[in-house]
């Protein structure tokens, strides 16, 4: 393959990867909306619960944060962000909860 053709293929692959990343983030926000997470949380702004960016910052370097957050989403909890409690979430699959937590933690 010529250098020019390689550069074009590489550029196209990077463009596709960029689009996939954007679509993945949009899909994860749709998932959060589907399960009514966005009723209490927003990406950048505290509503009833903390902003997802604040959650990501708080748990950024904490070992076991992913598993703890997956458990908190499933079982609910209180105390980490004040007196307001988060109700348990029975509807999402374990895979969907993991996807949501992963989306939040990379913000």
Summarize the amount of helix as a percent range.
Answer: 55-70%
Q: How many distinct beta strands?
A: 2
* Helical/strand content category: mainly alpha
Q: Into how many domains do the coordinates divide?
A: 1
| Rg (CA only) | 17 Å
CATH homologous group name:
Cytochrome c-like domain
Large-scale geometry = globular
Kindly report how far apart the N and C termini lie.
38 Å
Number of helices: 4
Our estimate of the beta-strand percent is: 5-15%
Q: Sheet with the most strands?
A: 2 strands, antiparallel
- The CATH topology is Cytochrome Bc1 Complex, Chain D, domain 2
Strands in their spatial order, largest beta sheet: 1-2
Oligomer class: single chain
Based on the coordinates given, report the CATH architecture: Orthogonal Bundle
- Just give the CATH class: Mainly Alpha
Mean pLDDT across the residues is: 84
Residue stretches low in confidence (pLDDT < 50, at least 5 long) are 5-22
Helix/strand order: HHHEEH
């Amino acid at each position: 393959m010529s250098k020019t053709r390689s550069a074009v293929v590489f550029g196209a692959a990077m463009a596709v990867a960029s689009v996939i990343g954007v679509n993945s983030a949009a899909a994860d926000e749709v998932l959060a909306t589907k399960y009514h997470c966005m009723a209490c949380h927003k990406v950048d702004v505290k509503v009833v619960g903390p902003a997802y960016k604040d959650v990501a910052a708080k748990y950024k370097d904490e070992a076991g944060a992913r598993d703890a957050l997956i458990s908190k989403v499933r079982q609910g909890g209180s105390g980490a962000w004040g007196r307001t409690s988060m109700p348990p979430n029975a509807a999402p699959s374990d895979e969907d909860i993991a996807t949501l937590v992963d989306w939040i933690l990379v913000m």
